[in-house]
Amino acid sequence: MEDQATLAYLNMFAVLGSLENLTDLLPRAREQVRTPKPVSVGFAVKDGPQATITFDDGHARLTEGVDNCDVKLPFASPEKFNGLIDGTVTPVPSKGFTKINFLLKQFTPLTETLEKYLRPDPKDLENRDFFEVSTKVMFYVIAAALSQVANHDEVGRFSAAHTLDGDIAFGIKDGPQATIRVNAHHFQTIKEPCKEPRAVMEFESLDLARELFDGKVVALASIGTGQIAMRGMISMLDNLNRILDRVALYLA
Amino acid sequence: MTEIYKYPKSIDGFDRALKVIPGGIYGHQGPAEGCYIPSDAYPRFSSKAQGSYFWDLDDNKYIDYMCAYGPNVLGYGDPDVNAAAMEQLKIEDCATIPSYKMVEFAEVLVDTVASADWAFFCKNGGDTTTLAIMTARAHTHKKKIIFVNGYYHGVNMWTQKLDYPGVLPEDVANNLYVDWNDIPALEKLIEENEGEIAAFISTPYMHGNFVDNELPASGYWQKVRELCTKHGIVLIVDDVRAGFRLDLAGSDHYYGFKADLICFCKALANGWNVSALCGQDFIKPTISGLTYTGSYWMSAVPFAAGIACINKLKAVDAPRDFARKGLDLTNKLKQAANENGFHLVVSGEPALFYLRLADDDSLMIHQAWVAECVKRGVWITNHHNHFINYSLSDEDINRTAEIADEAFKALAKRM
Q1: Which CATH class is domain A4-118?
Q2: Is residue B114 part of a domain?
Q3: Domain co-membership, B322 together with B205
Q4: pLDDT tens digit sequence for B163-182
Q5: Could you name the CATH architecture of A129-251?
Q6: Residue in chain B lying closest to A227 (CA)
Q7: pTM
Q8: Are B303 and B107 in contact (CB under 8 A)?
Q9: Distance from C-alpha of B205 to C-alpha of A178, rounded to nearest angstrom
Q10: Which of A194, B68, B135, B170 sits most deeply, having the most CB atoms within 10 A of its CB?
Q11: Which of A158, A231, A245 is facing B37, going by the closest CB pair?
């Protein structure tokens, strides 16, 4: 069963965090949030995550904390914040009323674009450019979600408690790469290629990754065919796979 | 130089398998759980097996140190065991009431295994570990079980972990965990759960995967025995993997203590499908009252094979042979590693040796070396202990050392 606090961390750092990647990959997304001066939006969740997304020249960057934001959106609980993500809660800023226009006319349309790429219409995926951006953004969502589930979900923490220290290279061949850093059973996702991996999990192609994300192919079979390459400290990947199983539950 | 194997028929076969079998090959004998790294270095299916060898679909021959993950203890197709099985097959196998062979096999085990006053037959190792847990709970009317971290006792729900897909928290709610060889931690765990613990279950030594295997510290098992007796905890030895390879009287006997319940499978009948839970008299009334059975558990052919297997293991003093060959082989592998600038760590008992190249902490160099060996006809595995069988010859060992040396040289060239 999913837990609301874990879901809030995942929504913050994986889903909203993927605005970084969407704005990097998609010029249209950058245009949606381009402003003369940088604008930052803070999300303060009581008993949950706190983070700020800064938009600078169309590019989004997420940082922990809400101390230096132009607009602050408070949420009384993780459930309320999760309501923002699923569209059932409309937030009221506690700071930055002069930036309401940015929120309504630029940020909200950007999140709608993100949803279009994260929950794509099958017809849109027939366009190769759309397919590639959608799959890459989805990859970063999953990579970031891994760490949130490992650090917050009860079962995820059990897997994390059995994971050795070191960096895991998690990526798609000739595509996006991430480093999953494990230190004293705490996970951190770094959206950059891994320099010195202790374990490697790599998908053969964007197409395979998409099929895995959509549940159309099975990871075990893909390992057998060599379409997913694994090497190194396999016990780390065993635990990573179990956490991935939990990620699917939260992202469903 | 040894020819490098190719696997076109295996690959075709695996593609066909994927269409009709989940994952193509599920479980530990498949490419995922079997850690085939990289996957194209390994075949998928065997075509025949004899003695210490098997051949894949492409007719590549392997000197096999996994021995079907243990069942091959005398040699694939051992003539004496198979003759006994074939003779029984002509008479009867699976019938409405059991063959008397079951009694004869139980008598052989009771006469062979030091802690056995009786034997209860099943099919797989996991059947016996589950039966042992049920018996312990029925006997003590307690629910908690102590496991040693890094354990493997089969795949039944109670043996799995909280984060395994399909496992409920309730399935593992009564599982307690302690580190191997850690008596103070065990004492603390027992104290914290006083009056609630039904059983302590462990393999005779720690042959976990991904880590060097660890033998019991001096006096460890004697202290465990003492604690279990003192607190009314049933002491279960899972001898499915090591059974009959260290000591025909049981691995508890080998390490100088007596289990309450002891589980056997792999080496019991040289590949014929039978397993056995053996135990002491005091717990026999409890197990007699359990509802636990299966459609094929009393088939007679495996009983006949088991009798022949145990008798032959005794006749050839197999554990002594396994220890000598295991030591000889691993010394030669270590020498080949040293001569090529690598550091091979051998752990566990020689009859079930575990290998690890200690030249990086990711094990990628180890995985690359294992793949080079497999592609040249020596079947070793990355992260599981190996097995010696009686038919392994000194010539096989020497040939293995040659191939290992070639594999190290190939690896050194790439680095």
Answers
A1: alpha beta
A2: yes
A3: no
A4: 998 999 999 999 999 999 99
A5: 2-Layer Sandwich (3.30)
A6: B39
A7: 0.94
A8: no
A9: 39
A10: B135
A11: A231
